[in-house]
Design a protein that fits this description.
Length: about 425
């Protein structure tokens, strides 16, 4: 009835939201009209409701939770986006000066991000706005993490220094999407379509929400669903066990590097040397580099690539460090002993160290900070050189340990004092 009589219903819907906005936590807890009104106004894309809905979203956390509960994280951004009236100044003022709920603030930012994807906000403007938010001061909360994720999802490589700053200050919740290296991987990934807000709402879909579910509904056999879940888990476990089995490459097989030559005539000797040093085969490396930004691929318009910003040498150095330090999620039954892991890390970091020395000498790069400003991708060289020194000291390799220490005494003097 309401959907069929939209024009007559809108004033009542606005009034319901305004009532909630005025009464706040004094609103009768049985009163739910404002909740439905929000989604109906979004479905109608009624732009005149935007200022009221924006004020509602700016309430303090306790009040917002009382009025709309989990909608803050599952629908508020869609409602605001669909009712947006074109007043960017109002939206950005609320984002910058938001005193209330961090999740509601994130929902507002989602709106501007979606408007950027729609072509209604220029890239330069949005990047500058994100910088203003960061400069305005942040805390270690969900909103700060959303700022970092937005930078990555929109592939704003020009903001990598701000992204690094958020991690350095401890503002990003690592449990949400991982550490800095994972965010860099995401920035170069185009596997999923970026979308921050839905382009439409059907208020009838609310009936499927847990909030409105019938607690007495036992039409499905919960026991059977749990059994099926268990079977699915066991199937995936079996796949994982099979996936970790090493694939033996024959001497006369095609080389896995893709050269077209036989393995014995191509990479076999080099791989044997790598294995003796503690590294892995080319095939094994590919597995652990699956999330690493692709290089040497056919370019697609509108996408960014590592080669746009870095030369081959710096990418090779970073790739070696990545193989050493990137967290590897492996099943319990496939885990290596600590000694093997440490040996592998040292091998990759030592290889990166030799290349870094040559590059620094060739380009007259005097300090690690100078190198990072020009070539840092996933890891600061000041960090991974320090990690290498610790690994060499633990292993008792005084020769290489002394070499790295002597180099770092000069190259890392900014942090060593």
């Amino acid at each position: 009835m309401i959907i069929e009589n939209q024009e007559e219903a809108v004033p009542c819907l606005i009034e319901a939201v305004e009532k909630a906005l005025q009464e706040k936590q004094d609103l009768d807890e049985e009163y739910q009209l404002h909740f439905y009104a929000m989604f109906l106004l979004g479905q109608f894309q009624y732009e005149e409701a935007f200022p009221v809905l924006l004020d509602l979203a700016s309430l303090d956390q306790d009040t917002l939770d009382y009025l709309i509960g989990d909608t803050v994280t599952s629908g508020l951004n869609d409602v605001l986006y669909l009712t947006f009236d074109g007043d960017f100044a109002n939206l950005e003022t609320h984002i910058l000066n938001h005193p209330g709920d961090e999740y509601a603030r994130a929902a507002m930012l989602d709106v501007e991000a979606q408007l950027y994807l729609d072509g209604r906000v220029e890239r330069k403007h949005f990047e500058e706005f994100l910088r203003r938010i960061i400069e305005n001061g942040l805390e270690q909360d969900y909103f700060s993490t959303v700022i970092a994720q937005t930078i990555c999802d929109l592939h704003f490589w020009g903001m990598r220094s701000e992204l690094w700053q958020l991690f350095e200050l401890g503002y990003v919740e690592l449990g949400v999407a991982g550490s800095y290296d994972s965010y860099i991987d995401d920035m170069f990934s185009y596997e999923r379509k970026e979308e921050f807000c839905r382009k439409s709402i059907d208020v009838m879909s609310l009936k499927s929400w847990a909030l409105f579910a019938d607690e007495n509904d036992d039409s499905e056999d919960k026991s059977e669903r749990m059994d099926e879940l268990y079977r699915a888990i066991m199937r995936e476990e079996q796949k994982s066990r099979q996936a970790v089995k090493a694939v033996k490459i024959g001497r006369n097989d095609p080389c896995p590097c893709g050269s077209g030559r036989k393995y014995k005539q191509c990479c076999m000797r080099r791989e044997q040397e790598m294995l003796r040093a503690g590294m892995e085969t080319v095939e094994e490396q590919k597995k652990w580099l699956k999330d690493y930004p692709q290089t040497g691929t056919i370019r697609q318009e509108g996408q960014i690539y590592l080669e746009d910003y870095f030369d081959t040498e710096s990418i090779e150095i970073d790739r070696s460090v990545y193989l050493a330090l990137k967290h590897r999620a492996v099943p319990v039954w496939a885990r290596e002993d600590e000694k093997t892991v440490q040996k592998r890390k040292m091998a990759y970091l030592c290889a990166a160290f030799e290349k870094l020395k040559d590059k620094a000498e060739k380009e007259n790069i005097a300090t690690g900070r100078e190198y990072d400003e020009k070539y840092m991708i996933h890891y600061s060289c000041l960090y991974w050189l320090w990690s290498l020194m610790n690994l060499l000291n633990k292993s008792g390799d005084t020769v290489r340990g002394g070499e790295v220490s002597d180099f770092c005494r000069i190259f890392c003097r900014e942090i060593l004092g």
